[in-house]
Amino acid sequence: STNWIVIKTTDSGESWIQLSTGCQDYLSSLFFFNELTGFVTSGNRYVSDNNIVLKTSDGGMNWVQKQIFNNSHLSNIYFINESTGFIVGGRYWYGGYIFKTTDGGDNWIQYPQLQSNFMNSIFFTSQDTGYVAGDDGRILKTNNCGLNWDYLNTGNNYTGFYSITFINSNIGYVVGGGGKIYMSSNSGNNW
Predict the structure, then answer these.
(1) What string of DSSP letters covers 70-121?
(2) What is the mean pLDDT of residues 107-131?
(3) What residues does 162 pair with on adjacent strands?
(4) Which of 74, 70, 66, 20 is nearest to 43 (CA)?
(5) Alpha-carbon dihedral angle through residues 101, 186, 166, 184, given to the nearest 10 degrees
(6) Cα separation of 133 and 122, whole Å?
(7) Which residue of 32, 154, 159, 165 could cross-link 176, Cys pair, CB 3.0 to 4.6 Å?
(8) What's the confidence (pLDDT) of residue 3?
(9) pLDDT, tens digit, for every residue of 31-78?
(10) Of 168, 111, 167, nearest in space to 140 by CA
(11) Distance of CA 188 to CAs 10, 72, 85, 177, 184, Å?
(12) What pLDDT is attached to residue 130?
């Protein structure tokens, strides 16, 4: 079996070192608060067995398993502060999910299944405002730190969106299938 790794640089990419996670599954996402504390998620979109969240407090030298997610692929992890974070993903052919922690990743709660679309990426522009990009041209937005999510009209119901980011509270980008890039200049209201 393969032990999947994280690679790390401390010299702006001039050299890289391999850090063993001990994880036996694909690593799908990573998020670091600082040079010491970070998370990785495991998952394979087509084989959604028991995927996990790992946490390091020593820059990746050691990893501790925080939680197992049964039958859910974990696509992307994002924290808005050291306590509150989100994971998006789903179960292939069964729909998309959003998980949230408020205790630094020790425990995660799952929001009810949103609908039939797989969730691929998450990004927050503030403590309250966040966006999720998913399959079939879906973008979701929250204005209350994930308590409620609203669908935004992208004018596209066919292209899967794989990554979303904002450079400020108004200007955001999402990339998807077919080499398409969409931009919003009004907080996601239009793309």
Answers:
(1) ET-EEEEEEESSSS-EEEEEEETTTEEEEEEESSTTS--EEPPP--SSPEEE
(2) 85
(3) none
(4) 74
(5) 120
(6) 6
(7) 159
(8) 60
(9) 998 999 999 988 765 555 667 888 999 998 998 888 777 667 788 999
(10) 111
(11) 35, 27, 21, 19, 5
(12) 97
Q: Give every CB contact of residue 13 below 8 A, 6+ residues apart in sequence.
A: none
User: For 179, phi and psi rounded to 5 degrees?
Assistant: 70, 20
- Is the separation of the CB atoms in 117 and 130 below 8 Å? no
pLDDT at position 95, please?
76
Pairing of strands 17-23, 4-8: antiparallel
* Edge-to-edge strand ranges of the sheet holding 130-134: 119-124, 130-134, 139-142, 150-152
Q: What is the pTM of this model?
A: 0.87
Tell me the backbone φ, ψ of residue 177, rounded to 5 degrees: -60, 155
Give the chain's mean pLDDT. 86
User: 170 — phi, psi (to 5°)?
Assistant: -105, -40
Tokens describing residue 74: 């974990």
At 1 the pLDDT is 46
Q: What is the DSSP letter of 160?
A: P
Element (H, E) at 171: none
Tens-digit pLDDT profile for residues 92-114: 666 788 999 999 999 998 876 56
